[in-house]
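User: For my dataset I need records formatted as: sequence, then structure tokens, nothing else. Please produce one.
Assistant:
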Amino acid sequence: MKKVKKAQMILIKVLCCIAILCVSFVPFFNDTVDAKAINSHTYNDYFKKVTWIKRSGVWSLSVEPKSTLTKNYGNANVQGAHASRSYKLLESKHKKDKYWKNSGSMANQYLCHVQYAGSIKSPWNLEPSRKEYSYSHTVKKKCNP
């Protein structure tokens, strides 16, 4: 259990570092994007609807993203900054929900959906019961390892 908690903390630190790096370098890559603007986005800027549902006996956080998350910015740094910001907001709002657990797995599933599912698939169903694997394994398993 301590290894899982340590891994979750490492993942959160890595995500925060990525967000900081992405937001810090955004102005160098795209003059039309203001890093402060990304950090000013709120929960409601990113999500149409987020609710807990039960599918086949498994609890899932069902996330319907807004175009702010699914839009192709043509810049991986901008997309990464939005992904990091939106996940922090999602986790902050729901981490005390009784079904929220396994933040590392939830983060991997979420980031995979942002990067690969985009607007192609909605809602995104994040299942806290899923075991935490590496991000690459999560991607190989189509966001649901």
